[in-house]
Amino acid sequence: MEEKIFGRTMEYYKECGCNHTAAEIHSQPGLWRKTAEMMEGRKEEISRFMDQVMSVENLRIVTAGAGSSAFIGETMQYMLAKELGIRIDNVHTTDMISAPDGVLFDVPTLLISYGRSGESPESSAAVSFAENRIKTIYHIIIVCDGESRLAKCAGEKEKSLVLVMPEGSCDKGFAMTSSVSCMSLATWCLFHYKELETYTAYLRLLADYMEKEMGKLAAGAEKIAEYDYRRIIWLGTGALKGLAREASIKSMELSDGYVHAGYDAPMGFRHGPKTVINDETITIHFLSNQDYSLRYDIDFAEEVIREKQGNLIVTVGEERTKNMLTGEDVKVTYTIPQELPEVSEMGAYINCLVFAQLLSMKKSLKLGFTTDSPSKKGDVNRVVQGVVIYDL
């Protein structure tokens, strides 16, 4: 009997033009284990580099990327600040090249560049722009293709570290899925380099749990995808706000814009954006696993439930949140390994990330799109095209 993925055979996904996306979402736990192995294999090199760069006085740390690669930085900005007290500025490469005066400053800088293909013109241009404007600069390149322009241009720099994600992470599908989770987890381990073996053990534990949880997350996504909605709003606090932005782009990408998506923090959504809610809207509430932030998430979800009309409401949170709210259309819950640090949002992030990927894929299939290549007009591409880089 043919193995099923998320309740369907691979033949089904091939017929729907979704075989790459489905397989790449499903393969993530195995890739996380390979990411852990890669990080351990380079422990000494990582430690030498990080010891050197983190000792630089008045160091500015900048995460950079475009699209989903940039949204990794938005998540890490919150997560690492909470865990380690590190200040990180997330600057999109698109801003670095189009408005460099507002984001590039001549102070000692660690530039962390993310890329799935590493071939987006902005990626290598941002590295060059930063080199031209900053006297003391260090580079960390986290990329899924070690032969890409981004990997090669940074690898030539003296003060650089290139981390290539495991083979299979450079998604062939249109949407970034396994590439996002691998690059996020690698960043988490990178900044916890002094406890690297502990954190790579956490990656393996997350992989073990996800293999058990993924079916439940997929069932929740399947149920939600059956509803008729044209607007989706993803809401999250802290690191989950960065994820909400990633989730919103997945919803639009895989439905070719049929589903219009937005994102915000629950507290910010009250200040005007809430007006988008109508009978064609679904709000997805990521519930924080941090007790303080969770209070605000619960308060706002209760407010939307009280005011509910024809709109749909979904909550996504760890198992303990199951009885905290009533009145949602769908509750999705997951389990976080108890061994993870209580201060960390990684357990919530990784579960909510996979759920967002699954819902975007399931909705795409429900609407009849060719999920691996959903753009009917061909004006949006897996690797961005048509970018002209102008000299400074």
Q: TL;DR of this structure?
A:
With 392 residues, the protein is of the alpha/beta class. It has helices at residues 10-15, 19-26, 28-41, 43-54, 68-84, 93-98, 121-133, 149-155, 178-191, 196-225, 239-254, 266-269, 291-306, 346-367; strands spanning 4-5, 8-9, 60-65, 88-92, 109-115, 137-143, 160-164, 231-235, 260-264, 281-286, 312-318, 330-334.
What order do the helices and strands come in, and which of them pair?
Layout: E1 4-5, E2 8-9, H1 10-15, H2 19-26, H3 28-41, H4 43-54, E3 60-65, H5 68-84, E4 88-92, H6 93-98, E5 109-115, H7 121-133, E6 137-143, H8 149-155, E7 160-164, H9 178-191, H10 196-225, E8 231-235, H11 239-254, E9 260-264, H12 266-269, E10 281-286, H13 291-306, E11 312-318, E12 330-334, H14 346-367
Parallel strand pairs: 3-4, 3-5, 5-6, 6-7, 8-9, 8-10, 10-11, 11-12
Antiparallel strand pairs: 1-2
Helix pairs in contact: 3-9, 3-10, 5-9, 5-11, 9-10, 10-14, 11-14
